[in-house]
Each structure stands twice: as C-alpha cells, then as structure tokens.
C-alpha cells in the first residue's frame, strides 16, 4: 500500500517541528515527497515538473495559520492547485455536454482501441436518453438518441455497439464493413436528420497505437460530421503513456472534452491531470464500471483527492 501525501509530508514535518511558515528549505524537502506521490499516481514527468513549480510559487512565504503545521499547509496548497488544474476553476458547467446545436447534435468518440469508446457510447446514449443531460445546471429532458459505428475494420465492433444499444434501449443504425467510414457517417447524419433525432453518437475505430492513417480517417469524419462534441476517451490505467496518446489526438482533432474510463480499477488517476494538461480540454465524464450506468460527471475535487491518495 502506498502512503498518501499527508502521511508522506507528516514524516518530513516531524524533522522540522516548530516551523511557522513555508520556507525555501522546508518547502523543497516536502516538494520532493509531492513529486514522488504524483509520479506514483501516474502523472507524467513534464506535468509533474510544471505542477511542482506552480505549487512552489504559491507555497513559499505562506503563513502557517492556526493548528496547521507546514506539512498540512502544503497539502492544502497542493490540493487546491491540483483541483484547479483538473478543471475546478472552470466551474461545474465545463463538464456539461454542449448539445444546443441544430439537431441532430453529433458526438464523435475518439480514442485508442480498448480505451472504452463503445462502452462509453452506450453509457452516454443511456445518460442522454434517460434525461440526465443538463445545460447551465438544469436538466433538459430525455433525448432521442441514435448510435452508429464507423469501425469497418472489426465487424465485432459493430456487433458490440449493436448489443450495447439494445441493452440501453436506444436506436442503433446498422453499418457494414464494406462501407467506408465516411459513407457510414454521411448515411447516419442523413438518417438522424430525417428521423428527427436529437443526438447522433458516432463510435469510431481505434487502433492499438497511434497511427497516421487512423488520425486522417477520424479527421475526415470530423470534417464531415461537424460534431458539437468530440470526446477523447482514455483509459485511466494508461498511466504515463496517456500524455502521448492525448497529444496525438489533440493535434489531429479539435477535441471538446475528455472521458476517463476504468476509474473503478486501481489507477490513481494521475493520467487525468496529464491529459488535461496536454489537451487543455475539460474532463467531462468518468467511467466507473463496465455496466451501462457506470458513467458519472467529472468532479475535479474528487479526482484531486484520489491522486493525492
Ligand atoms: P473500445 O475498443 O475503445 O471501444 O473499448 P470497449 O468499449 O470495447 O472497452 C474495452 C473494455 O473495457 C471492455 O471490456 C469494457 O467492458 C471495459 N470498460 C470500458 N469502460 C470501463 C469502465 O469504466 N470500467 C471498467 N471496469 N471497464 C470498462
């Protein structure tokens, strides 16, 4: 079991009893512990460096008030900074999907194979058709949702989405590996328009790694669909690697948000900070189980807590 940040810092603080403020030397010592804790939580190294620099700037010279000791004071600064960087300073509405477009509002799902795109497509379809969607903090009612798969490389992927759609009782538009992804997208858009769907969610092919052909393909789907939301789906277990994957997707596509899956596992969630840092986009949802109701709006504060252990 890893020590959490408070435990780590309290050990350091024992060696400097009686200090009443955060100074260059005590802060330095404690920041080493913060650095270790963040790396253990899978925050990528360059992100950790930036973060430590920010915290140092905020922390130095801070008066340690009341019953706090320097360690507790620093944990406070770290927690506050981490929450802000996770998107806490963006306000609660940053995590809402903005579907206020001319219907059908298109949501494009992007990410590597296995990240959880198809599962998240089902979860989101359920979320929207159950009426959980909010705008400005207010529920906007049940949405009529259509899902389609543009993954022509794995017929099993199309079947998987079909099964998921049946499970959450939303309409599934069949597609076929003989079509091009662009044809599927055009057909789906047309179908959604003609049948007055509020939302069209397009699941896309993922690859095991980042490759250029895949990025070109998803970019052309983006251009064709003009989605209101382009969500990057990333596995929390991805750890350090999440940075490179997120960067590749953010470079190829104007992302609007991130969904981090598999937070029900052991991952400490440091990848959330890395992905946010690299993409600059808000985390909108987290996946917390394999089941279709395992989707929750993202809470910066909770994620900061999780990363700190
Ligand atoms: P895709 O290749 O990106 O479409 O990924 P899938 O949706 O097929 O998901 C890959 C695996 O991850 C499946 O076994 C899913 O059940 C699982 N999965 C997806 N999201 C979550 C989650 O939030 N928690 C857990 N525990 N498993 C998930």
Automatic annotation (TrEMBL):
Its EC number is 3.6.5.4. The keyword Manganese does not apply. The keyword RNA-binding applies. Keywords: Cytoplasm, GTP-binding, Hydrolase, Nucleotide-binding, Ribonucleoprotein, RNA-binding, Signal recognition particle. It is found in: Cytoplasm. It catalyses: GTP + H2O = GDP + phosphate + H(+). GTP binds at residues 111-118, 203-207, 261-264. Residues 282-295 form the SRP54-type proteins GTP-binding domain. Part of the signal recognition particle protein translocation system, which is composed of SRP and FtsY. SRP is a ribonucleoprotein composed of Ffh and a 4.5S RNA molecule. Belongs to the GTP-binding SRP family. SRP54 subfamily. Composed of three domains: the N-terminal N domain, which is responsible for interactions with the ribosome, the central G domain, which binds GTP, and the C-terminal M domain, which binds the RNA and the signal sequence of the RNC. Involved in targeting and insertion of nascent membrane proteins into the cytoplasmic membrane. Binds to the hydrophobic signal sequence of the ribosome-nascent chain (RNC) as it emerges from the ribosomes. The SRP-RNC complex is then targeted to the cytoplasmic membrane where it interacts with the SRP receptor FtsY. Interaction with FtsY leads to the transfer of the RNC complex to the Sec translocase for insertion into the membrane, the hydrolysis of GTP by both Ffh and FtsY, and the dissociation of the SRP-FtsY complex into the individual components. This is Signal recognition particle protein.
């Amino acid at each position: 079991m890893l020590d959490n940040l408070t435990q780590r810092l309290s050990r350091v603080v024992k060696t400097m009893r009686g200090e009443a403020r955060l100074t260059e030397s005590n802060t330095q010592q404690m920041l080493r512990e913060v650095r270790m804790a963040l790396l253990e939580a899978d925050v990528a190294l360059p992100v950790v460096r930036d973060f430590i620099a920010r915290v140092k700037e905020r922390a130095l010279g801070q008066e340690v008030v009341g019953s706090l000791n320097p360690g507790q004071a620093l944990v406070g600064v770290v927690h506050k900074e981490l929450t802000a960087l996770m998107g806490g300073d963006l306000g609660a509405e940053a995590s809402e999907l903005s579907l206020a477009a001319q219907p059908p509002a298109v949501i494009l799902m992007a990410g590597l194979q296995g990240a959880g795109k198809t599962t998240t497509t089902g979860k989101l379809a359920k979320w929207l058709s159950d009426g959980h969607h909010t705008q400005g903090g207010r529920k906007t009612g049940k949405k009529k949702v259509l899902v389609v798969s543009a993954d022509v490389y794995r017929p099993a992927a199309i079947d998987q989405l079909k099964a998921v759609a049946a499970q959450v009782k939303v309409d599934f538009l069949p597609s076929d590996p003989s079509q091009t992804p662009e044809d599927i997208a055009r057909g789906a858009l047309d179908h959604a328009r003609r049948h007055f769907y509020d939302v069209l969610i397009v699941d896309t092919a993922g690859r095991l790694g980042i490759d250029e052909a895949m990025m070109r393909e998803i970019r052309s789907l983006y251009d064709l669909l003009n989605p209101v939301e382009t969500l990057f789906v990333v596995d929390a277990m991805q750890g350090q690697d999440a940075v490179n994957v997120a960067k590749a997707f953010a470079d190829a596509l104007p992302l609007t948000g991130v969904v981090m899956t598999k937070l029900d596992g052991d991952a400490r969630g440091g990848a959330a900070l890395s992905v946010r840092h690299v993409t600059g986009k808000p985390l909108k949802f987290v996946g917390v189980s394999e089941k279709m109701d395992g989707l929750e709006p993202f809470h910066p504060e909770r994620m900061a807590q999780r990363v700190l252990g």
